[in-house]
Amino acid sequence: MAVAAEERLHVERKKPRPLSTNSAIAHAVKDLDVDVVAAYPITPQTTVVEKIAEFIADGELEAEMVHVESEHSALSATVAAALTGARAFTATASQGLELMHEILHIASGLRAPIVMSVAMRALSAPISIWNDHSDVMNARDTGWIIFFVSSAQEAYDTVIQGYRIAEDSDVLLPVMVAYDGYVMSHTMEPVVTEDRDSVLAYAPKRSFPYKLDPEKPVTLGALADPDWYYEIKYQIVEAMRRALGKAREADEEFGRRFGRKYGLVECYMCEDAKSLIVAASSYAATLKAVLPRAWEEGVKVGLLRLRLYRPFPEDLVVDALSRVDSVLVIDRAISYGAPYQGPLANEFSGLILKHGLGVNLVSVVAGIGQRRMVDDDFLKLARLAWEARTVRKPETIFYGVRK
Amino acid sequence: MSSEGSLPAYYEIPPGGAILEPGSSLKYKTGSWRVLRPIINQDKCVRCRLCWVYCPDAAILELDEEYVTSKGRRYKITYKVNYDYCKGCGVCARECPVNAIEMVPEPIGGEE
């Protein structure tokens, strides 16, 4: 690569600075030269938008900040902005994402290439401002590309990758970058930020190809009767399929240019592992610290971190599952009344059946409303995963609930 | 609408069903939705234009056609209904200040 040497020098000069995930995301928005931000404040997302507002006020980002009266309007304005050809961003959490739900489908249906960050938070009632994944799991069938990130750096990098994927004319789907509220949103970590020119060279603005333009009138969002609706929704199925390759390519290219890449899934201590724990976001980071302890006591459990959730990186997950005897799936949301009450566990159950894998599945629901999970809890889950090689656990385990 | 066999496949439709050609709704003749048909009594009509204003589908035509009423009043314009697009909502009949528009049932299985 001709540019590689110069880029690498540039990479080596970079010094990390302390940023929370919320701040890191705001920096990504600035470095991407986003044109329009429409957002409504909600805990624990608020400081994302506050920081963006500060960048705009200080003249570091030339963007239109649209103050709206609700998240429904926030996403509506973001979609509309994207359809005029602007690079548009919004951020939310919890109830805000729920209020956006109608527009989530409209964003993907209209193929608006927007990026939204979600500081994942539990859902009311009872009201909880703490973290779990109920909000994003409720949005999983809305036609959005969904990433779970597990560090502030990865959040910064993935928002940038997100625009490259979303604005690709073979994709044209909105992207959600989700991370754990509080545990990540308000925690400082070292983050390397890139300069705008390099970011824009990697993710050049490719505006919506059928943008609203008085010089070239188009109709977007017309009524589709039964002769047309199905095909237009099926387009999203195909776009999702293409997005998988584009996400892989976006991550590879990011690695070449900036020296950091993540893969679509991450397998940690998977070599020689006989069992896996599936986790996303901050739990994956904690597990990385805990699993060496498990191996010391002979519990050979690896971590399969789900980074890209939609489209589901099926081949990579199946490949990892095909090497083990058991898999423990941690769900941080509840699918009430479902066969497994963890939504991810149901997907893994289907995957195991679809591919005829001889893997024992353990479904664990944990950390609901940010119920405390410390190292020893993860160690217990590792032992549980290990046990499940030989002992079937057919029912969802609600870890940590008082019974 | 055309028959299913001649409709485009999903990849032949612009993403998200974007319509790139303005005015394409003219191809979609909504007149078949109609249950009641507005009939304008040209003799009673005072050419006030309210039906033309209110029609949500621009299906009232204002034509440069002369009309002489039975009482000998001469009008330079005539209002007619474009039955290709009139859905039979009846707003015109409701708003007509001289009750010159009557809504009559479409014949069952009837053609235009």
Write the layout of secondary structure elements.
The complex is a heterodimer of chains A (403) and B (112).
Chain A: H1 4-13, E1 17-20, H2 21-31, E2 36-39, H3 46-57, E3 64-67, H4 71-83, E4 88-92, H5 94-99, H6 101-109, E5 115-120, H7 134-137, E6 145-148, H8 152-166, E7 175-180, E8 188-191, H9 196-202, H10 229-258, E9 265-268, E10 275-279, H11 282-296, E11 301-306, E12 308-310, H12 314-321, E13 326-331, H13 343-354, E14 360-365, H14 375-387, E15 397-398
Parallel strand pairs in A: 2-3, 2-4, 4-5, 5-7, 6-7, 10-11, 10-13, 13-14, 14-15
Antiparallel strand pairs in A: 1-8, 6-12, 9-11
Chain B: E1 36-40, H1 50-54, E2 60-63, E3 67-68, E4 74-75, E5 78-81, H2 91-95, E6 101-105
Antiparallel strand pairs in B: 1-6, 2-5, 3-4
Task: List key phrases describing it.
heterodimer; A: 403 residues; alpha/beta; Rossmann fold; 2 domains; seven-stranded mixed sheet; six-stranded mixed sheet; 17% strand; globular; B: 112 residues; mainly beta; two-stranded antiparallel ribbon; 2 helices
Verbal overview:
The complex is a heterodimer of chains A (403) and B (112). Chain A has 403 residues and is an alpha/beta fold. Chain A has helices at residues 4-13, 21-31, 46-57, 71-83, 94-99, 101-109, 134-137, 152-166, 196-202, 229-258, 282-296, 314-321, 343-354, 375-387; strands spanning 17-20, 36-39, 64-67, 88-92, 115-120, 145-148, 175-180, 188-191, 265-268, 275-279, 301-306, 308-310, 326-331, 360-365, 397-398. Chain A has 2 domains: 15-258, Thiamin diphosphate (ThDP)-binding fold, Pyr/PP domains (Rossmann fold); 266-398, Rossmann fold, CATH 3.40.50. Chain B contains 2 helices and 6 strands. Chains A and B meet through helix 10 of A and loops of B.
Order of helices and strands of chain B: EHEEEEHE
Kindly state the percentage of residues in helix of chain B: under 10%
Q: Strand order of the main beta sheet of chain A, please?
A: 3-2-4-5-7-6-12
The CATH topology of the largest domain in chain A comes to Rossmann fold
Task: Please report which band the strand proportion of chain A falls in: under 5%, 5-15%, 15-25%, 25-35%, 35-45% or over 45%.
Answer: 15-25%
Class of secondary structure makeup of chain A: alpha/beta
Largest sheet of chain A: 7 strands, mixed
What would you call the shape of chain A? globular
Strand-residue proportion of chain B: 15-25%
Trace the largest sheet of chain B across and list its strands. 1-6
Which structural class is indicated by helix and strand composition of chain B? mainly beta
Low-confidence stretches of chain B: none
State the fourth-level CATH superfamily of the largest domain in chain A.
Answer: Thiamin diphosphate (ThDP)-binding fold, Pyr/PP domains
Largest interface: A-B, 22 and 17 residues
Number of domains of chain A: 2
| C-alpha-based Rg of chain B, rounded | 18 Å
Q: For this structure, what is the CATH class of the largest domain in chain A?
A: Alpha Beta
Distance linking N and C termini of chain B: 16 Å
Please mark out the parts of chain A with pLDDT under 50 across 5 or more consecutive residues, or reply none. none
The mean pLDDT of chain B is 92
| Known CATH architecture of the largest domain in chain A | 3-Layer(aba) Sandwich
